[in-house]
Amino acid sequence: MSRVLITGGSGFIGTNLVDYHLKNGDIVCSLDNVEPRNKGHNPYYKKVNLLHKEGILKAFKEFQPDYIYHLAARTDLNGAAEQDYLANTVGLENVIECCNQLPQLKRVVFSSSRLVCKIGYSPKNYEDYCPTTAYGYSKVYGEKIIKEMPGRNWSWCIVRPTSIWGPWFSVPYRNFFNAVQKGVYFHPMNLKVLKSFGYVGNTVYQLANLMEASLEKVNKKTFYLGDYDPIDVYPFAKLIAHEFGSRDPFQIPIFFLISLAKIGDIFQKFGFSAPLTSFRLSNLNTPMLHDLHDLQGVIGPLPYDLKSGIKETVLWMKGEK
């Protein structure tokens, strides 16, 4: 039994991680600035703002964690400048300073983002950055803050979640599942798109095992989080449709999707929501592959295959309604 503290415990991955450690019999504290999306987690929740160092320190010292997952961050892409993402930089510095005042702390897992590089870019190494958004830049700066820390009494590693999906998810992958269920997802005809995705049940298993792995395997290292084998988007969508009992998604010519996306751009320009824009279409069509062999070498086999992950997710979605 360990004392596990999770910042961002009300988020998607955080919610699943709280569940994982509670089922494991650990003593859990969840810190966030919003209430838990799983109301069963209310007894373990404390409201904390990353920009208020005194509040963080108070919560840390009261709980005295053995292990900390730092998942809390501003993650949307709506900010125009790095100043909009102070939670990811100043907030991170606050967390690190507070960690240094916990003599019993053993390890911290810091969550970064795959968007430290633009979609489709294959970095040469973990110091090869190529962000295109203010959010991505804030995460690059955050990684540098962590890597440039002076020596600590606790070990650490950085994780970059890929496209994670599963129970308790929201935008954008919840929208994808909804579109497939309703029969309104359209895939470009004859286009094979491979992407590094991850079922959240596997993701929290990976996180927990990174926390427990031997020092030489993880300390001061960076890992992408995701299922080891990439998914092909159209067969993935078909499996989701079959689990819902829906028809197979339509495949339509790419030029038609481009036309629809341009119409969506016009709607978006005037402040209206559009299901398809040129930006979203580009993301859909662009392969997104990450090398997870180093993570696989540390973690080994995962508990869920693709079909079982989809089944668990669809059951959760049906139960939520």
Would you write up a description of this structure?
- It holds the Pfam family Epimerase.
- Pathway: Bacterial outer membrane biogenesis; LPS O-antigen biosynthesis.
- Residues 4-168 form the NAD-dependent epimerase/dehydratase domain.
- Belongs to the NAD(P)-dependent epimerase/dehydratase family.
- Helices cover 41% and strands 16% of the residues.
- By secondary structure, the protein is an alpha/beta fold.
- The protein has 2 domains: 3-161, 3-Layer(aba) Sandwich (Rossmann fold), CATH 3.40.50.720; 166-196 and 228-290 and 304-321, UDP-galactose 4-epimerase, domain 1.
- Strands 3-2-1-4-5-6-11 form a 7-stranded parallel beta sheet, with helices on both faces.
- Strand 5 (107-111), helix 4 (134-147) and strand 6 form a beta-alpha-beta unit.
- Helix 1 (12-23) packs across helix 6 (200-212) and helix 9 (254-269) packs antiparallel against helix 10.
- It starts with a strand and ends with a helix.
Q: Write down the overall geometry.
A: globular
Radius of gyration from the alpha-carbon trace, in angstroms: 20 Å
> What is the percentage of strand-forming residues?
15-25%
The largest sheet, given as strand count, sense and whether it forms a barrel, is:
7 strands, parallel
How far do the termini sit from each other? Answer: 35 Å
DSSP summary: helix tally? 12
Task: Give the neighbour order of strands across the main sheet.
Answer: 3-2-1-4-5-6-11
